[in-house]
Amino acid sequence: MTFENTLEFAKKLDSQDQLHKYQDEFIFPQVKGKKVIYFTGNSLGLQPKRTKAYVDEVMNDWANLAVEGHFYSEKPWWDYHERFANPLSKIVGALPSEVTVMNTLTVNLHLLMVSFYRPTKTRYKIICEEKAFPSDQYMFQSQVHFHRYKPEDAIIEIKRREGEHNIRLEDVLAKIEEVGEELALVLIGGVNYYTGQVFDMKTITAAGHKAGAYVGWDLAHAAGNVKLELHNWDIDFAAWCSYKYMNSGPGNASGCFIHEKHHNNSELPRFAGWWGHNKERRFKMEPTFDPVHGADGWQISNLPVLSLAPYLASVDMFDEIGMDALIQKRDLITSYLEFILHEIDKEVDSSFEIITPSDPAERASQLSVLLHGEGRSLFDYLMKNGVITDWREPNVIRLAPVPLYTSFEDMYEFGQILKAGILGKANL
Length: 428
Known about the structure:
Layout: H1 7-15, E1 26-27, E2 30-31, E3 34-35, E4 37-38, E5 47-48, H2 51-65, H3 69-72, H4 85-92, E6 99-102, H5 105-116, E7 125-129, H6 134-146, H7 151-154, E8 155-158, H8 169-179, E9 183-189, H9 201-210, E10 214-218, E11 237-241, E12 254-258, H10 305-321, H11 323-345, E13 351-354, E14 367-372, H12 376-384, E15 387-388, E16 390-392, E17 396-399, H13 408-426
Parallel strand pairs: 4-15, 7-8, 7-9, 9-10, 10-11
Antiparallel strand pairs: 1-5, 2-3, 6-12, 11-12, 13-14, 14-17, 16-17
Helix pairs in contact: 1-13, 2-10, 4-10, 5-6, 8-9, 11-13
């Protein structure tokens, strides 16, 4: 498609967009009496309007039924999480039995490492990507300390080549082969939070398995954003937060995936708790743990239904739309934003370097942009003029045009505000 940097062209794209109506499903902050252009769905998604009804339902059941709400509410609390199995399995490409919801992301990664990081004297190393999200780095360090290894010996970071912003697939595969029989676990972010690079999860997983290691993925920036086939890619485990692209609310519950090939492995250790016990016998209060079959058997505690309600509202919306439709718009609107940035670049003295891969197969709903010649003042200008974006030192802004609630007109308007911010500074 040949793009144009005009309001008329942007409106034409919106008129052809089957998902455009979903903008009205969300609540937008206001700046200067106008709804914002929201680019930070990769940090916290907007609130769907339907969320309140899901939360109110739980609150009303609590008020009217109290403890009996566990069994007699319209959506009984004791099996509330089971409503996620089918819609969530479609989002991440899994069998319904392979997904569950519980806890929060880093907690779940720690719990999954109980099962899948089982170091020995000779096989104890973890491969991750350089500049992983800090929480993952802290998790790796604390895990290897727990097992009495030194992080500098046990954690292997795959680095970017000199002068490059992204990690090459061949370097990941070469490092896996190099570590070889010392490799216990590959655990990488499916989408790098800083650059927006999408990793080839299928190929990397196969390479890790060939080396004899388990392979897991942190899908914080991938779930609800990237076409995933966790079951078919033979991934051992994965976890993700729900409050970014899936709009479940700040700090909300995490999703987990455990491949079905592990469900019957009684030798696989796990930390157990009451809610992971055999559902049909849970209230018999038996002393010996008998896990629920499937991913639900990794649950530990009674689930926070008030937190799950907004998440359920969101996955129901995803189920209406389907990932294929989301990704089709994602690719088009991200390409249009890329075009707008290049067009504005021609009209100002500053230069923009997009450090996110240009290949659509290696990116999703994020463009990370180095603003050469610009500083924090430009970010502040954008925020004051209704563009909610994300600043990362030294001079990177992350822009996430989430297909559920951003429009092509938003992309055009952003370009005009960006240009005004740079030219206004030059004219001072």
